[in-house]
């Protein structure tokens, strides 16, 4: 089991480390790289996975429901604590709710549980993204229009992929293969970009960052653990939910905070120290998943 955990995590941290090393000496325009990834490669991956009729999406309805409960439940659980600690909920709660299901989650889940976990990984990623650009933006600014969310490439790709899958419309194998190949670029690119972002860690607000590094996975697991046994999830879906719940805050929280001018440096501490904390949290979570939920072959 230890060997399997290392085989899962070492590629993740090696690719992120390459991003950090390259960013240290070359300072790439990571925002343009992320824009390319989120507007082209990730939507192609999402469409290809959802449109592939070999992936029966109806089987993932309960997993999507559980992922939604984890995201929203984390905010509900931590809201009284944020009030008690006198933390600004607009700054503190979004990073606790919206986790790194893209940059870290998709690659980690595929490495941990194999290619058969890709549809489940994409499903929880889509749920997190849709909630982030609807509930998350509403939390920051109640006047935010939902039309902005509907124009996102990943949302359009999700709707198109679901339409193709449900309608049974056959797509040429060469087209799906090309989309899978281009979409596959997104997975290592997410990790590389995460490594570059780690160079921006601001330790000036380290106490809040450490608090978030503990509370983000803890609040997710508090919601996920009972759902794993209450909902009709198979072993693979339960394992995916467990890892999803323990993921650190998404880097996107920092970009959104920067756009809305809501203490972006504090959010950066929450996000990036939380991702460093995953060096401890993820091995423990994978050990639990392999021991009690989904034994590796």
Strand content: under 5%
The succession of helices and strands, N to C, reads HHHHHHHHHHHHHH
Q: What is the mean pLDDT?
A: 84
Total of domains: 1
Question: What is the second-level CATH architecture?
Answer: Up-down Bundle
CATH topology: Na+/H+ antiporter like fold
Pick out the low-confidence regions. none
Main sheet, how many strands, which sense, barrel?
Answer: none
Please give the number of β-strands: 0
| Helix content estimate | over 70%
Structural class: mainly alpha
Total helices: the number is 14
The CATH class turns out to be Mainly Alpha
- The coarse overall form would be globular
Rg, rounded, reads 18 Å
Instruction: State the distance separating the first and last CA atoms.
Output: 10 Å
Describe the structure.
There is one protein chain. With 297 residues, the chain is mainly α. The protein has a single domain (1-296), classed as Na+/H+ antiporter like fold (Up-down Bundle), CATH 1.20.1530.20. It is built from 14 helices and no strands. The chain has helices at residues 2-26, 30-51, 61-84, 89-97, 101-113, 118-140, 146-150, 153-167, 173-184, 186-197, 206-230, 235-245, 252-260, 264-293. The radius of gyration is 18 Å and the shape is globular.
């Amino acid at each position: 089991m230890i060997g399997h955990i290392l085989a899962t995590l070492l590629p993740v941290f090696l690719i992120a480390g390459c991003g950090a090393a390259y960013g240290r000496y070359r300072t790439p325009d990571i925002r343009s790289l992320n824009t390319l990834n989120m507007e082209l490669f990730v939507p192609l991956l999402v469409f290809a996975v959802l449109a592939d009729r070999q992936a029966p999406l109806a089987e993932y309805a309960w997993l999507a429901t559980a992922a939604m409960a984890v995201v929203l439940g984390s905010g509900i659980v931590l809201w009284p604590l944020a009030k008690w600690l006198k933390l600004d909920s607009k700054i503190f709660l979004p990073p606790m709710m919206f986790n790194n299901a893209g940059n870290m989650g998709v690659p980690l889940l595929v490495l941990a549980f194999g290619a058969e976990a890709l549809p489940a990984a994409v499903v929880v990623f889509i749920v997190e993204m849709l909630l982030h650009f609807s509930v998350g933006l509403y939390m920051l600014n109640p006047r935010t229009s939902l039309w902005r969310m509907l124009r996102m490439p990943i949302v359009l790709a999700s709707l198109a992929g679901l339409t193709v899958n449900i309608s049974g419309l056959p797509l040429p194998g060469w087209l799906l293969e090309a989309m899978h190949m281009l979409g596959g670029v997104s997975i290592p690119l997410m990790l590389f970009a995460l490594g570059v972002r780690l160079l921006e860690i601001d330790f000036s607000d380290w106490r809040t960052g450490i608090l978030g590094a503990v509370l983000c996975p803890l609040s997710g697991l508090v919601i996920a653990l009972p759902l794993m046994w209450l909902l009709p999830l198979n072993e693979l879906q339960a394992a995916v939910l467990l890892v999803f719940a323990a993921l650190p805050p998404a880097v996107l929280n920092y970009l959104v905070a920067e756009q809305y001018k809501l203490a972006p440096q504090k959010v950066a501490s929450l996000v990036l120290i939380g991702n460093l904390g995953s060096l401890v949290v993820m091995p423990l979570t994978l050990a639990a998943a392999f021991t009690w939920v989904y034994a590796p072959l």
